Amino acid sequence: MYKMSTAYARVLVNTLSEQGLDAERLCQEAGLDMKLTAIPGSFCERSTLYRLWELAAQACDDPNIGLKSAKNFHPDIFQLVGYTMMSSSTLKQAFERLVHFSPLIGTGFTLFVVQEQQHYRLVTIDHHQRGSIKPRQYTDASLGTLLGAYRWLSSGTSLRPLSVEFSYPQPQDIHEHQQLFGCELHFGAAYDSILFDGEELLRPLSTANEGLAKLHYSYANAQLDLLNDSTMVCMTRALITKRLSLEQSQVRCDMESIAAALSISKRTLQRALERAGTQFTDILNYVRQQLADFYLRHSHFNVQHVTHLLGFHDHSSFHKACLRWFGMTPGEYRVIQSNLRQPYTLGLDVRKVKQ
User: Fold this and answer.
1) Where residue 347 falls among pLDDT bands split at 50, 70, 90?
2) Number of domains in the chain
């Protein structure tokens, strides 16, 4: 069972009320206790929020209602994580803090930042749960929230990202998408992501405070230590993802080093993962598969470099892993995915995305 912070649910409730909907009735129908949204540190099931977005879209007959939550952004949506972002020195560091402390916001997803030439892409990998289908409105709200963070922290309400990728097929009407993001749009992508201008992300934040940053970082780490076994899986997955990313590809990524990073023993980590119904090698293989898919789809790195990034000792091992994951070699998979990747670009003719 995946969960999300009820602070995020509060934004959803506020959006419903602003649209003139009966938020209390919709929450009751979806199974969300509205009282929880006022309790700091509380969580609700992610599937409940999925259901609430679906009900909201039906009630107002507006499939774009998720996009409207962007204007409700404030750092307290992320609670403690939001304050670590506010006190960060730059937007890049703020997003890195968001990635690091994302288990405090919820489980069932992994965030990571990847550099693309001089720019940076913030990627969300959602982890699927049997019987729970992510509605389009949830994706819109999530990407809109990231856009809101970008603009709020940089004090630039008119700032635009370079491109946005949506994991759902292109809707018939994307006018509201264009108005909100104002940049190149891609639909039918493998993951939800936003590409930010590198120069903008490296500008100093007006809210930066080194003393508060240390205090917030220390306290947020302490809160991570209090999370339960299911969140330990999320934390382990997040650390592995970070260590297999571009900036930390030289850092060890075995069970012992991950346990040390979590300030626990290897045996304690092993027991926590077992109680959650998994083991370290399963999580490592899952993250490798997700990142292999991402790098082969999105990056221009050659296969040898991807092999190195993902911690494989040789090309043969990565080759065999791709055959197991995708049923084909890395090169074949890259060619097929590049042929399927057909974006809609703002200002150009619309092209259908092959599904």
Assistant:
1) very low
2) 2
